[in-house]
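Same chain as my last thread, 506 residues:
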Amino acid sequence: MPTQIALKLGLPEASQALFVRHPLLRRAASRRNESLVSIYYDTRRLDLHRKAISLRLRKQGDGWLQTVKHNAESEGGLTTRPEWDTPYLNHFDFSAIDDAAVRARLEKPRVAQGLTALFETSFRRTIWQLHPAPGSTVLVMLDRGWIASNGRRAPISEVELELVSGSPARLYEVAFELAARIPLTPELISKAERGYRLASDTKGAPVRATAAPIAAADHPLVAFRAIALNCLAHLHLNHAGALRDGDPEYVHQMRVATRRLRAAMRMFAPVLPADFVAPLVPPLRELMTTLGRTRDLDVLLAEIVGPVSAALADDPRISALAGILTDRLYATREETVDFLARPGYGHLQLQAAALLHGKALIEPPPPDAEQPATLLDFARRRLRKLQRDTHHLAELARIDDPAALHQLRIAIKRLRYALEFFGPLLPRRSFTTASKQLATLQDKLGQLNDLANAGAVLMACAGSDPALREAVALIGGWHGPRHAALLASVPDQLEVVRKLRLPKLK
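reply #2:
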């Protein structure tokens, strides 16, 4: 069964000219161009797509080449997938497919008789052949063109690094050199998947976190790898929307994904390789800070200033302050978009993916006497520690100590993320109950934290203008009853934390 190993990278259309002039490509052993036209087929019910099978015909000289691919899932942009090529002689022929399940699906009468063209891709491909090390050959392919379906079109601008010979690590070495000066990011959605979305006219939307595929018998490092790759996918699937869409939820979801990744790194720290965490912490911290500035202003405007502005719509002081805050938010959003469009973001994604594809995580060493042998044992230890830490901070928390409440909120958030990471090992009902309790606690403490921090930001917006400072006082007074009610509920919330019992791992 032929298997393709490739690293797919998204390239902004505006950076194509810069890419083709890259010094690395000038040292290529060869360069050639070709034009590729492909037609993708499926049934109207998308029987193939639901089974992760793609079927296409690609123009080749005077004829067509039939290609079938299966289960092309991407881990940080790195794709390993079986594919079968067959000359197309005016009818589909699946006899050369040596995967019985794939062949049976394609030859099923309802499928074989219902195949129809859904979308088409047409692009110009430039191919450079590189030899990054002795015995290694990597093809660098730049695709520029479009996808079309039902009168709709979407651009294609992506780079694919295909391994011809040598170690997959060479793909990342080439990617790092290319991405040093060009904003290249792992491309997690294939042309075929984009074509399906175009054919069904599916609109983009913010992507929320999902559970990673883990099992109780996994080595802890294997589980961490699955969780971290899941967090990276969550982060990057919201990247394009954050760049092009004004919906603040994209930035929020990127922030959540970054927090989850850092929480996973802290939780699995006892078993992670020594050189894994150090290179990722500084860029993750910078990303978190940048996303946080925008998200905090979004919350301040929508949840604190917005309700007062609506209630006191005729007060010019409130309107003026809201306008200043809106201007600051727009400026901060532009700074965030600029940051996310720089090469540094793509480099972070590539660096994390390269580390997660390292031998230490793909083939973890046997646990020693001090480390748990399975994920189940590891999860029990770590959840107990997180619960102890949370109970301790609940004992220290006081309603007149915002800093202590903030530390408790962080502990609750980390415990909640841990439960979500280990969700597949927990009974669904008790997991859902505990998760909702932690989310409620986190939300109430978060509202207190937002109100505590709002004054300083609003006073900075007001400056020395007396009318604007009066507006800040009005906003504070308007939220006074809510703040008092939140403070009054703190003792009950602390009691909930103290009594919280985590579901039993299975």
